[in-house]
Protein backbone atom coordinates (compact mmCIF):
# COMPACT_ATOMS: atom_id res chain seq x y z
CA UNK A 1 0.00 0.00 0.00
CA UNK A 2 1.50 3.36 -0.98
CA UNK A 3 1.18 6.27 1.43
CA UNK A 4 -2.49 7.15 1.55
CA UNK A 5 -3.94 10.37 2.88
CA UNK A 6 -7.49 10.43 4.19
CA UNK A 7 -9.64 13.24 5.44
CA UNK A 8 -12.85 12.70 7.40
CA UNK A 9 -15.18 15.67 7.69
CA UNK A 10 -18.54 16.29 9.28
CA UNK A 11 -20.28 17.92 12.19
CA UNK A 12 -19.54 17.64 15.87
CA UNK A 13 -21.68 14.82 17.24
CA UNK A 14 -21.31 12.65 14.15
CA UNK A 15 -18.26 10.86 15.46
CA UNK A 16 -15.87 12.21 12.86
CA UNK A 17 -12.79 11.93 15.05
CA UNK A 18 -13.67 8.43 16.23
CA UNK A 19 -14.12 7.39 12.59
CA UNK A 20 -10.59 8.58 11.77
CA UNK A 21 -9.22 7.15 14.99
CA UNK A 22 -10.60 3.68 14.24
CA UNK A 23 -9.25 3.68 10.68
CA UNK A 24 -5.80 4.60 11.98
CA UNK A 25 -5.98 2.13 14.83
CA UNK A 26 -7.02 -0.68 12.49
CA UNK A 27 -4.11 0.01 10.16
CA UNK A 28 -1.42 0.58 12.77
CA UNK A 29 -2.30 -1.82 15.58
CA UNK A 30 -4.13 -4.67 13.85
CA UNK A 31 -2.72 -4.51 10.27
CA UNK A 32 0.86 -3.72 11.36
CA UNK A 33 1.15 -0.62 9.19
CA UNK A 34 1.82 2.97 10.22
CA UNK A 35 -0.79 5.64 10.81
CA UNK A 36 -1.08 9.19 12.07
CA UNK A 37 -4.14 11.18 13.13
CA UNK A 38 -4.60 14.93 13.26
CA UNK A 39 -7.91 16.24 14.53
CA UNK A 40 -9.42 19.68 14.35
CA UNK A 41 -12.55 21.08 15.92
CA UNK A 42 -14.77 24.08 15.49
CA UNK A 43 -15.25 26.55 18.35
CA UNK A 44 -17.97 24.38 19.88
CA UNK A 45 -18.38 20.65 19.94
CA UNK A 46 -21.82 19.54 18.85
CA UNK A 47 -23.02 20.85 15.51
CA UNK A 48 -19.88 22.65 14.43
CA UNK A 49 -17.48 21.57 11.71
CA UNK A 50 -14.72 19.18 12.59
CA UNK A 51 -12.37 16.98 10.70
CA UNK A 52 -9.74 14.32 11.07
CA UNK A 53 -6.66 13.81 8.93
CA UNK A 54 -5.42 10.24 8.76
CA UNK A 55 -2.31 9.06 6.96
CA UNK A 56 -1.63 5.37 6.35
CA UNK A 57 1.64 3.93 5.10
CA UNK A 58 3.79 0.81 5.13
CA UNK A 59 6.69 3.00 6.28
CA UNK A 60 7.01 5.37 9.23
CA UNK A 61 5.25 8.66 8.47
CA UNK A 62 7.32 11.82 8.69
CA UNK A 63 4.65 14.39 7.88
CA UNK A 64 1.16 13.81 9.27
CA UNK A 65 -0.76 16.71 7.75
CA UNK A 66 -3.11 16.00 4.87
CA UNK A 67 -3.24 18.64 2.15
CA UNK A 68 -4.58 16.70 -0.86
CA UNK A 69 -6.36 13.60 0.39
CA UNK A 70 -6.54 10.43 -1.66
CA UNK A 71 -9.76 9.53 0.14
CA UNK A 72 -12.31 11.97 1.50
CA UNK A 73 -15.12 10.86 3.81
CA UNK A 74 -17.81 13.48 4.33
CA UNK A 75 -20.84 13.25 6.57
CA UNK A 76 -22.25 16.77 6.15
CA UNK A 77 -22.80 19.30 3.33
CA UNK A 78 -20.43 21.82 4.93
CA UNK A 79 -17.65 19.26 5.06
CA UNK A 80 -18.26 18.44 1.40
CA UNK A 81 -18.20 22.13 0.39
CA UNK A 82 -15.04 22.75 2.37
CA UNK A 83 -13.00 19.69 1.55
CA UNK A 84 -14.17 18.33 -1.82
CA UNK A 85 -12.08 20.80 -3.88
CA UNK A 86 -8.93 19.62 -2.12
CA UNK A 87 -9.48 15.97 -3.05
CA UNK A 88 -6.71 14.59 -5.24
CA UNK A 89 -7.78 14.19 -8.92
CA UNK A 90 -8.71 10.55 -9.37
CA UNK A 91 -9.27 10.20 -5.64
CA UNK A 92 -12.17 8.55 -3.84
CA UNK A 93 -15.07 10.37 -2.20
CA UNK A 94 -17.26 8.56 0.34
CA UNK A 95 -20.29 10.59 1.33
CA UNK A 96 -23.50 10.50 3.35
CA UNK A 97 -25.87 10.29 0.40
CA UNK A 98 -28.96 11.67 2.13
CA UNK A 99 -27.14 14.73 3.46
CA UNK A 100 -24.65 15.57 0.73
CA UNK A 101 -25.42 16.47 -2.88
CA UNK A 102 -22.55 16.23 -5.33
CA UNK A 103 -21.81 19.10 -7.68
CA UNK A 104 -19.19 20.39 -10.11
CA UNK A 105 -16.66 21.20 -7.41
CA UNK A 106 -15.36 17.63 -7.42
CA UNK A 107 -11.90 17.42 -9.02
CA UNK A 108 -11.51 15.50 -12.24
CA UNK A 109 -11.56 11.74 -12.14
CA UNK A 110 -12.88 11.46 -8.60
CA UNK A 111 -14.91 8.32 -8.01
CA UNK A 112 -17.73 8.91 -5.53
CA UNK A 113 -19.65 6.38 -3.49
CA UNK A 114 -22.66 7.33 -1.40
CA UNK A 115 -24.29 5.61 1.55
CA UNK A 116 -27.34 6.63 3.59
CA UNK A 117 -25.34 6.08 6.77
CA UNK A 118 -27.60 8.03 9.10
CA UNK A 119 -30.69 6.13 8.04
CA UNK A 120 -28.90 2.79 8.25
CA UNK A 121 -27.70 3.67 11.75
CA UNK A 122 -31.22 4.62 12.80
CA UNK A 123 -32.53 1.34 11.42
CA UNK A 124 -29.98 -0.49 13.55
CA UNK A 125 -31.38 1.25 16.63
CA UNK A 126 -29.03 4.18 17.22
CA UNK A 127 -28.18 7.17 15.06
CA UNK A 128 -25.01 7.45 17.14
CA UNK A 129 -23.34 4.66 15.15
CA UNK A 130 -23.47 6.40 11.77
CA UNK A 131 -19.72 6.98 11.97
CA UNK A 132 -19.15 3.24 12.44
CA UNK A 133 -21.35 2.56 9.40
CA UNK A 134 -18.98 4.96 7.58
CA UNK A 135 -15.92 3.06 8.83
CA UNK A 136 -17.40 -0.15 7.45
CA UNK A 137 -18.24 1.58 4.18
CA UNK A 138 -14.67 2.91 3.93
CA UNK A 139 -13.26 -0.60 4.41
CA UNK A 140 -15.72 -2.19 1.98
CA UNK A 141 -15.03 0.35 -0.78
CA UNK A 142 -11.29 1.00 -0.43
CA UNK A 143 -9.92 -2.17 1.15
CA UNK A 144 -7.15 0.00 2.62
CA UNK A 145 -7.40 -1.83 5.93
CA UNK A 146 -8.54 -5.40 6.37
CA UNK A 147 -12.12 -5.94 7.56
CA UNK A 148 -10.84 -8.11 10.42
CA UNK A 149 -8.51 -5.36 11.64
CA UNK A 150 -11.19 -2.73 11.30
CA UNK A 151 -13.79 -4.76 13.17
CA UNK A 152 -11.32 -5.41 15.97
CA UNK A 153 -10.52 -1.72 16.12
CA UNK A 154 -14.23 -0.92 16.33
CA UNK A 155 -14.84 -3.39 19.13
CA UNK A 156 -11.83 -2.15 21.11
CA UNK A 157 -12.64 1.54 20.65
CA UNK A 158 -16.29 1.82 21.65
CA UNK A 159 -17.76 1.89 25.15
CA UNK A 160 -18.33 -1.43 26.88
CA UNK A 161 -21.82 -2.72 26.23
CA UNK A 162 -22.11 -1.11 22.81
CA UNK A 163 -19.80 -3.53 21.00
CA UNK A 164 -22.54 -5.64 19.41
CA UNK A 165 -24.46 -2.72 17.95
CA UNK A 166 -21.25 -1.15 16.68
CA UNK A 167 -20.21 -4.45 15.10
CA UNK A 168 -23.55 -4.64 13.32
CA UNK A 169 -23.11 -1.05 12.17
CA UNK A 170 -19.63 -1.83 10.85
CA UNK A 171 -20.87 -4.88 8.95
CA UNK A 172 -23.81 -2.96 7.53
CA UNK A 173 -21.52 -0.30 6.08
CA UNK A 174 -18.94 -2.85 4.96
CA UNK A 175 -21.48 -4.95 3.07
CA UNK A 176 -23.01 -1.84 1.53
CA UNK A 177 -19.55 -0.85 0.30
CA UNK A 178 -18.80 -4.28 -1.12
CA UNK A 179 -22.09 -4.32 -2.96
CA UNK A 180 -21.66 -0.84 -4.36
CA UNK A 181 -18.20 -1.58 -5.71
CA UNK A 182 -19.16 -4.92 -7.17
CA UNK A 183 -17.03 -6.90 -4.70
CA UNK A 184 -20.23 -8.20 -3.17
CA UNK A 185 -23.26 -9.55 -4.99
CA UNK A 186 -24.73 -6.32 -6.28
CA UNK A 187 -22.43 -5.63 -9.25
CA UNK A 188 -20.51 -2.39 -9.90
CA UNK A 189 -22.34 0.91 -9.67
CA UNK A 190 -20.62 4.25 -9.35
CA UNK A 191 -23.12 6.90 -8.46
CA UNK A 192 -21.00 10.03 -8.92
CA UNK B 1 -33.92 -8.73 11.69
CA UNK B 2 -31.67 -11.72 12.29
CA UNK B 3 -30.40 -12.52 15.77
CA UNK B 4 -26.67 -13.11 15.45
CA UNK B 5 -24.66 -15.61 17.42
CA UNK B 6 -27.38 -18.23 17.87
CA UNK B 7 -27.76 -21.10 18.53
CA UNK B 8 -25.34 -20.63 21.40
CA UNK B 9 -24.17 -23.34 23.82
CA UNK B 10 -24.14 -22.38 27.49
CA UNK B 11 -22.77 -24.33 30.42
CA UNK B 12 -24.33 -24.08 33.85
CA UNK B 13 -22.20 -24.04 36.98
CA UNK B 14 -22.93 -27.76 37.58
CA UNK B 15 -21.51 -28.57 34.14
CA UNK B 16 -24.82 -29.09 32.34
CA UNK B 17 -24.66 -27.87 28.76
CA UNK B 18 -27.71 -26.39 27.03
CA UNK B 19 -28.39 -24.57 23.82
CA UNK B 20 -29.96 -21.12 23.71
CA UNK B 21 -31.59 -19.99 20.48
CA UNK B 22 -34.44 -17.83 19.20
CA UNK B 23 -37.91 -19.39 19.23
CA UNK B 24 -39.04 -20.34 15.74
CA UNK B 25 -42.42 -21.18 14.26
CA UNK B 26 -41.71 -24.90 14.59
CA UNK B 27 -41.32 -24.61 18.39
CA UNK B 28 -45.01 -24.16 19.20
CA UNK B 29 -45.60 -27.69 20.50
CA UNK B 30 -42.34 -27.87 22.46
CA UNK B 31 -43.06 -24.51 24.07
CA UNK B 32 -46.56 -25.58 24.98
CA UNK B 33 -45.21 -28.79 26.55
CA UNK B 34 -42.73 -26.70 28.56
CA UNK B 35 -45.41 -24.40 29.94
CA UNK B 36 -47.83 -27.24 30.62
CA UNK B 37 -45.14 -28.96 32.68
CA UNK B 38 -44.61 -25.88 34.87
CA UNK B 39 -46.28 -26.15 38.28
CA UNK B 40 -49.47 -24.13 38.51
CA UNK B 41 -47.85 -21.96 41.13
CA UNK B 42 -45.20 -20.87 38.62
CA UNK B 43 -47.77 -20.27 35.90
CA UNK B 44 -50.16 -18.25 37.98
CA UNK B 45 -48.12 -15.09 37.76
CA UNK B 46 -47.83 -15.21 33.98
CA UNK B 47 -50.08 -12.86 32.06
CA UNK B 48 -51.64 -15.42 29.75
CA UNK B 49 -52.94 -18.96 30.00
CA UNK B 50 -49.80 -20.44 28.55
CA UNK B 51 -51.17 -23.97 28.59
CA UNK B 52 -53.68 -23.36 25.84
CA UNK B 53 -53.14 -24.14 22.20
CA UNK B 54 -54.66 -20.77 21.33
CA UNK B 55 -51.93 -19.01 23.34
CA UNK B 56 -49.19 -21.04 21.63
CA UNK B 57 -50.61 -20.24 18.20
CA UNK B 58 -50.90 -16.55 19.09
CA UNK B 59 -47.39 -16.40 20.58
CA UNK B 60 -45.75 -18.14 17.64
CA UNK B 61 -47.76 -15.98 15.24
CA UNK B 62 -46.62 -12.80 17.02
CA UNK B 63 -42.92 -13.48 16.64
CA UNK B 64 -41.36 -10.49 14.96
CA UNK B 65 -37.75 -10.07 15.94
CA UNK B 66 -38.15 -6.31 15.68
CA UNK B 67 -40.73 -6.24 18.48
CA UNK B 68 -40.96 -9.63 20.18
CA UNK B 69 -37.69 -11.46 20.63
CA UNK B 70 -38.17 -14.83 22.33
CA UNK B 71 -35.26 -17.07 23.28
CA UNK B 72 -35.49 -20.61 24.57
CA UNK B 73 -33.06 -22.94 26.28
CA UNK B 74 -33.01 -26.57 25.23
CA UNK B 75 -31.65 -29.57 27.09
CA UNK B 76 -31.85 -33.01 25.51
CA UNK B 77 -34.23 -31.70 22.87
CA UNK B 78 -36.68 -30.31 25.44
CA UNK B 79 -37.44 -26.68 26.16
CA UNK B 80 -36.41 -25.92 29.74
CA UNK B 81 -36.63 -22.13 29.77
CA UNK B 82 -38.17 -19.32 27.79
CA UNK B 83 -37.26 -15.65 28.00
CA UNK B 84 -38.77 -12.96 25.84
CA UNK B 85 -37.90 -9.35 25.16
CA UNK B 86 -40.85 -7.12 24.29
CA UNK B 87 -40.19 -3.77 22.59
CA UNK B 88 -42.47 -0.91 21.66
CA UNK B 89 -41.57 0.63 18.35
CA UNK B 90 -43.85 3.66 18.61
CA UNK B 91 -44.80 6.13 21.28
CA UNK B 92 -43.15 7.34 24.44
CA UNK B 93 -41.52 4.13 25.59
CA UNK B 94 -39.58 3.12 22.51
CA UNK B 95 -36.40 3.20 24.61
CA UNK B 96 -37.81 0.64 27.06
CA UNK B 97 -38.08 -3.14 26.72
CA UNK B 98 -39.81 -5.60 29.00
CA UNK B 99 -38.31 -8.96 29.85
CA UNK B 100 -40.39 -12.02 30.78
CA UNK B 101 -38.72 -15.20 31.90
CA UNK B 102 -39.83 -18.71 32.87
CA UNK B 103 -37.56 -21.60 33.90
CA UNK B 104 -38.47 -25.26 34.43
CA UNK B 105 -38.47 -26.30 38.10
CA UNK B 106 -35.71 -28.82 37.53
CA UNK B 107 -33.47 -26.05 36.20
CA UNK B 108 -34.24 -23.39 38.79
CA UNK B 109 -31.44 -22.31 41.15
CA UNK B 110 -28.83 -23.67 38.73
CA UNK B 111 -27.95 -20.41 36.99
CA UNK B 112 -30.09 -20.92 33.89
CA UNK B 113 -32.33 -17.93 34.57
CA UNK B 114 -29.28 -15.71 35.02
CA UNK B 115 -27.68 -17.07 31.85
CA UNK B 116 -30.81 -16.56 29.76
CA UNK B 117 -31.24 -13.11 31.23
CA UNK B 118 -27.67 -12.26 30.25
CA UNK B 119 -28.55 -13.14 26.65
CA UNK B 120 -31.70 -11.05 26.69
CA UNK B 121 -29.93 -8.05 28.20
CA UNK B 122 -27.22 -8.36 25.52
CA UNK B 123 -29.82 -8.49 22.76
CA UNK B 124 -31.65 -5.49 24.24
CA UNK B 125 -28.50 -3.38 24.42
CA UNK B 126 -27.50 -4.35 20.89
CA UNK B 127 -30.88 -3.04 19.75
CA UNK B 128 -30.22 0.31 21.38
CA UNK B 129 -32.63 -0.18 24.29
CA UNK B 130 -31.95 2.23 27.18
CA UNK B 131 -34.00 0.67 29.93
CA UNK B 132 -35.31 -2.80 30.71
CA UNK B 133 -38.08 -3.68 33.10
CA UNK B 134 -39.41 -6.93 34.57
CA UNK B 135 -42.37 -7.68 36.81
CA UNK B 136 -41.64 -10.13 39.62
CA UNK B 137 -43.74 -11.23 42.56
CA UNK B 138 -42.15 -10.48 45.93
CA UNK B 139 -41.73 -14.15 46.91
CA UNK B 140 -39.93 -15.11 43.69
CA UNK B 141 -36.63 -14.80 45.46
CA UNK B 142 -34.60 -16.70 42.85
CA UNK B 143 -35.95 -14.58 40.01
CA UNK B 144 -35.27 -11.36 41.91
CA UNK B 145 -31.72 -12.53 42.60
CA UNK B 146 -31.19 -13.41 38.92
CA UNK B 147 -32.40 -9.98 37.82
CA UNK B 148 -30.24 -8.25 40.41
CA UNK B 149 -27.19 -10.14 39.14
CA UNK B 150 -27.82 -8.67 35.70
CA UNK B 151 -27.98 -5.09 36.96
CA UNK B 152 -31.68 -4.77 37.77
CA UNK B 153 -32.92 -3.12 40.94
CA UNK B 154 -36.33 -2.73 42.56
CA UNK B 155 -37.80 0.44 41.10
CA UNK B 156 -41.37 0.21 42.38
CA UNK B 157 -43.60 -2.04 44.44
CA UNK B 158 -47.34 -2.38 43.79
CA UNK B 159 -48.83 -3.48 47.09
CA UNK B 160 -51.21 -6.45 47.05
CA UNK B 161 -51.27 -6.32 43.29
CA UNK B 162 -51.36 -10.07 42.58
CA UNK B 163 -52.93 -13.11 44.21
CA UNK B 164 -51.02 -16.35 44.58
CA UNK B 165 -52.35 -19.92 44.29
CA UNK B 166 -53.83 -19.73 47.78
CA UNK B 167 -55.62 -16.46 47.12
CA UNK B 168 -53.07 -14.57 49.16
CA UNK B 169 -52.37 -11.07 47.94
CA UNK B 170 -48.74 -10.39 47.17
CA UNK B 171 -46.68 -7.39 46.15
CA UNK B 172 -45.62 -7.00 42.55
CA UNK B 173 -42.06 -5.75 42.24
CA UNK B 174 -41.18 -3.78 39.15
CA UNK B 175 -37.49 -4.22 38.55
CA UNK B 176 -35.53 -2.11 36.12
CA UNK B 177 -32.11 -1.90 34.58
CA UNK B 178 -31.25 1.51 33.18
CA UNK B 179 -28.45 1.12 30.65
CA UNK B 180 -28.73 4.63 29.23
CA UNK B 181 -25.27 5.38 30.67
CA UNK B 182 -23.87 3.06 28.00
CA UNK B 183 -25.38 5.23 25.30
CA UNK B 184 -24.37 8.40 27.13
CA UNK B 185 -20.79 7.12 26.96
CA UNK B 186 -21.16 6.46 23.25
CA UNK B 187 -22.68 9.93 22.73
CA UNK B 188 -19.75 11.49 24.59
CA UNK B 189 -17.33 9.54 22.44
CA UNK B 190 -18.84 10.75 19.18
CA UNK B 191 -19.32 14.34 20.40
CA UNK B 192 -16.10 15.32 18.61
CA UNK B 193 -15.24 17.40 21.58
CA UNK B 194 -11.71 18.56 21.96
CA UNK B 195 -10.26 18.16 25.44
CA UNK B 196 -7.86 20.99 24.61
CA UNK B 197 -10.35 23.46 23.16
CA UNK B 198 -12.66 24.98 25.72
CA UNK B 199 -15.22 23.57 28.15
Would you tell me which CATH topology of chain B applies?
A: Aminopeptidase
Q: How many strand units of chain A? A: 6
In the CATH hierarchy, what is the class of chain A? Answer: Alpha Beta
| CATH homologous superfamily caption of chain B | Gcn5-related N-acetyltransferase (GNAT)
Give the overall shape of chain B. Answer: globular
Poorly predicted parts of chain B = 195-199
How are strands sequenced across the largest beta sheet of chain B? 1-2-3-4-5-6-8-7
**Contiguous helical run count of chain B:** 6
> Span from first to last CA of chain B?
41 Å
Mean pLDDT of chain B: 89
For the largest beta-sheet of chain A, the strand count, sense and barrel status come to: 6 strands, mixed
The helix/strand order of chain B is: EEHHHEEEHEHEEH
- How many structural domains does the protein architecture of chain B include? 1
Fold and architecture overview:
Chain A contains six helices and six strands, in the order βαβββαββαααα. Chain A is an alpha/beta fold and 192 residues long. Chain A has one domain: 3-Layer(aba) Sandwich (Pyruvate-ferredoxin Oxidoreductase, domain 3), CATH 3.40.920. A six-stranded mixed sheet of chain A has the order 2-3-1-4-5-6, sandwiched between helices. The two termini of chain A are 25 Å apart. With 199 residues, chain B is α+β, with helices and mostly antiparallel strands. Chain B is 29% helix and 32% strand. Chain B contains six helices and eight strands, in the order ββαααβββαβαββα. In chain B, α1 packs across α3 (53-61). Residues 195-199 of chain B have low confidence and may be disordered. Classes of the chains: A alpha/beta (192), B alpha+beta (199). Chain A binds chain B through residues 10-18, 39, 41, 43-46, 50, 124-126, 128-129, 131, 158-162, 164-165, 168, and chain B through 4, 122, 125-129, 179, 182-183, 185-187, 189-194, 197-199.
